[in-house]
Amino acid sequence: MTQPQRTVILLAAGEGKRMKSALPKVLHEILGRSLVGHVLAAAAPLEPAETMVVVGHGADQVTAHLAETTPGARTVLQEQQLGTGHATRVALDALPEATGTVVVLYGDTPLLQASTLRGLCEAHEDGGHAATVLTASVDDPTGLGRIIRDADGAFARIVEQKDATPAQLALTEINSGMYAFDAARLRVALKGLTTDNSQGEEYLTQALTLMLDAGHTVGTHTAPDIADTLGCNDREQLAWLRGLMQKRVNSALMRTGVTMDDPATTWVDVTATVGVDATIRPNVQVKGATRIGEGAEIGPDSTLVDTVVGAGASVVRAHTLGATVGAKATVGPFAYLRPDAELADGAKVGTFVEVKNSTVGAGSKVPHLSYVGDATIGAGANIGAGTIVANYDGVAKHRTQVGDAVFVGSDSVLIAPVSIADGSYVAAGSAVDQNVPSGALGVARGRQRNIEGWVERKRPGTKTAKAAERAADGAAEQRSE
Ligand code: UD1
Ligand code: CA
Fold it and tell me: What binding details are noted for the cofactor (predicted)?
């Protein structure tokens, strides 16, 4: 049997009042994706002919977000939120060509998995039902619609919390709000919805009753993991769902051979990857498009955003953003890598060092207390402690070139634009604003002079003067011996 056409309708017009947020609820983020982004990612493997998102509250923001992240999804505006049934009709009216299976989802169930949706669609299509409801048995069903079954255990109807009798309230099998429908039968049923319920809304759940009344069958499919059905209504639930997703992501990574010292404080976005035999120490965030290579060691206490880390590299107590760290390179402790910081294989960026838009060549070291901005450093160079690349003249940024095997003495300022050629030295404490040729020592600092007897004349009686006196006496004694 060939798979029928599938269409996804995602309801996201509600206000999400309890989030108490200027941001529309479905745009809140969990591990690298918006809530709605997670649902759309779970739906994508169904290969829907169309994906229609019903927007209302915050429609402009949600539409802009979808255009950026999921260009394949279309949106339709539900001006007034008259109920889940009404919202579904608004979407289906905008999809006159939809046939086969229509999957209805919400935008706030981020833990929904593709495998669960596949199971729902297969149960629906194999059963030849007019509708199939995704259900779950939960400990606390408060607020959710309850599944009412007949004496034979077959689906009878859904009763909302607000419309339920005490006996019905005691039922723990709930309506997830996700369904697979036969498109044609859904179109018919949506025309028959009424608003004679306690909320005066058009309930999508009534469509199921109308289908049964018309002699069709309605199936149920139990979600393999209750988490798949969990919606997000407030910030506490947002944090809880984030924790559940963290567990899923971390379990999957550990099963593929990643070591985590403390999974509870390890937060890896669903968009990031971590290689085999990598070790993640406590308090680490791996965000965005970050890719961590095999055997790398990350943390403790590090945040990596859109960063590529090579095999066997180590990143300790660092914050990195849009950087590339070569194989076996070392970063930190206490380092800041900014966009387009590129560390070649075996490079070292050490303690209290910031690197921006710069290349640090293979095996080169910037070990302590430096700023490297808009610079290209060759291979095997040593940038002494406290070296600052002055890349900004107050108006424009300029580049600095540092060649292979260059040795820059401590506390130097390299004033861009400037070039320190291959195989040269810069004397410690230099302020270099002229190019240094190969093989040369660039010295750019005041020459030292010692003013003899200054302490005795200018600071008589101080402990320093006394120490000078003792030193002079000692020298005199040595001479007389
Ligand atoms: C709905 C179900 C309930 C189920 C629960 C699961 C109905 C009548 N009840 O209840 O059985 O247990 O979901 O969470 O369907 N929305 C719109 N436009 C509207 C109304 C809602 O887009 O006019 C969207 C909301 O943004 C939300 C979703 O539909 O994402 C569910 O709406 P909500 O009002 O939360 O439904 P519940 O009362 O929770
Ligand atoms: Ca809800």
Answer: Binds 1 Mg(2+) ion per subunit.
